[in-house]
Design goal:
Helices cover 27% and strands 29% of the residues. The chain is α+β, with helices and mostly antiparallel strands and 413 residues long. A hairpin with a 3-residue loop joins strand 2 (68-74) and strand 3 (78-84). Helix 1 (17-33) packs parallel to helix 7 (237-247), helix 3 packs parallel to helix 6 (200-215) and helix 9 (302-310) packs across helix 11.
């Protein structure tokens, strides 16, 4: 457990007096309002893909990680797929619109950004947290000006159920936060609609991808989700952090400048778990210099360019890789080599090293053609207890930046 009254965040990123004064007030209000008792750990992550991309994305997930298809439910507007891995880890829910013409507020926000617009409904939606009562959580947070979706207020009924409720899209992150007061071992308790059984032709690619994952020796090497990282604008970093910490029982672990990439990495973590995979960390990255001032200093700004090209959104999901390996090849190297041999593309090379000192080895895949999300693999060598290293983050950010440019005229972002 972390004592939030005495904990001092790590890092060298200088926060404003507004943030330093507001953070303890957020913690105090959470405790006073009962939110810390009402809301527990992360229960699920929700990703939406475009029509026709549901099953291909499930096959991609089965090849690249531990999540396996469990159920499909049909609601008015979507197919809803439930995936699971270890029972102690959050579930993964994939939403697929029934029509290519489906549109909601997320679609319209995608349309505003040049590299998101071609994929109108592909975006990470947000996390779902377990709670004792959705209505009680809503009552607490609505008094704090957090807006929730009610039935009929959005085209997708998934976001407003008696036992599952979601906030509006955040103005700072374009993500939602959801709460569920029933177990998500199955979607049946949510009473969403009709359960659909996949036919053999539909399920075969999922089974084949899972079998390939096993045959490559990845089962047990690629573990659960370590963290997810959202990119926001420079001036909204502190607002994004404080808003998120208002809604969930996490704490601000710390923030570090990544000078080479003109950005900062800001980490929030769950104080109730000793294993990140049980309730993954939420990371927020932002430019240090806003884009309109950057020409004065001529620094790289891949983080802000990403936001300008894709919108505020989740950038990547990181999976932990089991520590270990040989003198010449660590487990993360095995994962990358094996996936590359079957056509999975990666950005640059593995960064970091595993030697006689605790450290990290990490790598980014290219973004998924289905979700637009990058997959990160991270091996924490010899019990490394930090969250990241500056050098690794700088190298990963630079590699991703090369892939996330938008060409317009003769200008390259």
């Amino acid at each position: 457990m972390i004592d939030l009254s005495t904990y001092r965040p790590r890092g060298d990123k200088k926060n404003t007096p507004f943030f330093e004064e507001s953070l303890p007030l957020v913690y105090e209000r959470r405790a006073r309002s009962g939110l810390d008792q009402l809301v527990g750990t992360m229960a699920a992550l929700v990703v939406q893909v475009d029509h026709g991309h549901g099953l291909p994305y499930l096959a991609e997930l089965a090849l690249m990680g531990p999540y396996r298809f469990r159920e499909c439910w049909l609601i008015e507007t979507h197919r809803v797929y439930l995936l699971a891995a270890d029972p102690a880890w959050p579930r993964l829910i994939v939403l697929e619109p029934l029509s290519s013409t489906f549109e909601d507020e997320g679609t319209r926000w995608n349309a505003m950004y040049p590299l998101a617009a071609p994929h109108p409904n592909a975006r990470y939606v947000g996390e779902i947290y377990s709670c004792s009562s959705c209505s009680a959580v809503r009552a607490v947070l609505e008094e704090q000006n957090i807006r929730f979706v009610y039935p009929g207020e959005t085209p997708n009924p998934f976001y407003a159920q008696p036992h599952l409720c979601f906030t509006f899209l955040s103005d700072y992150t374009y993500n939602r936060v959801g709460y569920v007061d029933v177990p998500l071992d199955s979607l049946a308790p949510l009473d969403l609609g009709d359960r659909v059984l996949l036919d053999d032709d539909s399920e075969r690619p999922l089974l084949e991808a899972a079998e390939l994952h096993r045959s490559l020796g990845l089962e047990g090497r690629v573990l659960g989700i370590d963290h997810m990282a959202t990119r926001v604008l420079a001036g909204e970093r502190e607002d994004a952090l404080l808003e998120y910490l208002t809604m969930v029982p996490y704490y601000f672990w710390g923030a570090y400048n990544i000078q080479e990439m003109n950005s900062s990495t800001n980490v929030t973590r769950c104080p109730h778990v000793s294993d990140e995979k049980h309730s993954p960390a939420r990371v927020f990255t932002a430019n240090n210099t806003p884009s309109y001032l950057n020409s004065l200093v001529n620094l790289p700004m891949p983080t802000e360019d990403f936001v300008r090209n894709f919108g505020r959104r989740l950038h990547h999901i990181a999976f932990e890789v089991l520590d270990g390996g040989s003198a010449t090849e660590q487990n993360v190297d095995v994962v990358v080599r094996s996936l590359q041999s079957h056509g999975v593309p990666f950005l640059a090379e593995v960064v970091g090293e595993c030697s006689d000192q605790p450290n990290l080895k990490q790598i980014f895949s290219r973004s998924s053609p289905h979700s637009l999300l990058i997959t990160e693999y991270v091996q924490r060598c010899q019990g490394y207890d930090g969250f990241f290293t500056r050098d690794n983050v700088a190298a990963l950010t630079e590699a991703a930046g090369h892939e996330e440019r938008f060409a317009h005229g003769h200008v390259f972002d």
